[in-house]
Amino acid sequence: SPRNPLFQAMESEISAAFDSGEPEDILSRAFKLTVTREDICTLQPLGWLNDRIMNFYMGLLVERSKKEGYPAVYAFNTFFYSKLSSTSHKGVKKWTKGVDIFEHDVILVPIHLRIHWTLLVVDLREKTIKYFDSLGQKGDHICKTVLKYLEEESKEKRNIELTASEWTLHSMGTE
């Protein structure tokens, strides 16, 4: 219930994060990131989410995926797709040095499209790539770019050829 003490304590902590203190106050450090009050304020209604908040959230999802019962998640940072799309696999191949992304169940790729965020989800178990855009824009080219990346990454790091025809690519609707 909204009146229980735990809920009230949480609400009080959230209000304090938004309302009091300096924008540069550090509110959290984790996943090699520092989150300030200014970053947290991007979560308010009509706020513009920044890279730090998105990368922090990806870190939270990866951390949760280590618990029993959750699929193993790998998340690229918010700069990955823009670098990939401008340089190809060569420009990002070092980003996974020491990591076999194919050992995970799900790969998350947050994408910033000038004015809003979208998410690409690679399900390695089902061989699907799904593109989620709350504005309903199609991301077929984004799915194809990431599939090509996966093919090149697999060939180079594991010496295994992926068969593109076995993969299903979807631009998901707004619902």
Automatic annotation (TrEMBL):
Gene Ontology CC: one annotated term: nucleus
Domain Ubiquitin-like protease family profile: from-to ranges: 33-175
GO molecular function, one term: deSUMOylase activity
SUPFAM superfamilies noted in UniProt: Cysteine proteinases
PROSITE patterns cross-referenced by the UniProt entry: ULP_PROTEASE
Keywords: Hydrolase, Protease, Thiol protease
Family: Belongs to the peptidase C48 family.
The name this protein goes by in its record: SENP2 protease
Organism: Chaetorhynchus papuensis (pygmy drongo)
Organism lineage string: Eukaryota, Metazoa, Chordata, Craniata, Vertebrata
